[in-house]
Amino acid sequence: DVQLVESGGGSVQAGGSLRLSCKIPPGYGACSSDVSWYRQAPGKEREFVSRIRSDGTITYADSVNGRFTGSRDDAENTVWLHMNSLKPEDTAMYYCQSSRCPWMRSGQGTQVTVS
After folding, report:
1. How confident is the model at residue 18 (pLDDT cuts 50, 70, 90)?
2. Which of 64, 60, 62, 35 is nearest to 50 (CA)?
């Protein structure tokens, strides 16, 4: 069962930082070329957070623009989401998804809690 693996979440105070990672399985490196981050808080719908495309362009939701930064490490088949100036409203389960390989399942997500 081939799937992405999210990690790096945790509990931080408002204003803190975290770095999430989305690991693409070995042999599927091409799937890292276009990856999006989503988040879902309890009782709320899933919402878009960020997307890094094959040409390197990155887009962000208005709610995180200026605070979050996406990046990609092709050598490690990993996509990162650097989160700064975290707010309580950023609390959610974060998932990554490959648009290049839409058939690849997201993982179990990584929980971010900001108090």
Report:
1. very high
2. 60
Closest CA to 48 of 30, 62, 33: 62
Separation CA 35–CA 39 (nearest Å): 14
Contacts of 86 (CB under 8 A, 6+ apart): 12, 14, 15, 16, 17, 18, 67, 112, 114
**Is the Cβ–Cβ distance between 56 and 74 less than 8 Å?**
no
Banded model confidence at residue 104, pLDDT cuts 50, 70, 90? very high
The continuous run of DSSP H or E covering 18 comes out as: strand 18-23
What is the bridge-based pairing of β-strands 10-12 and 110-114? Answer: parallel
Residue 72 in 3-state DSSP?
strand
Residue-wise pLDDT for 50-65, tens only, equals: 999 999 999 999 999 9
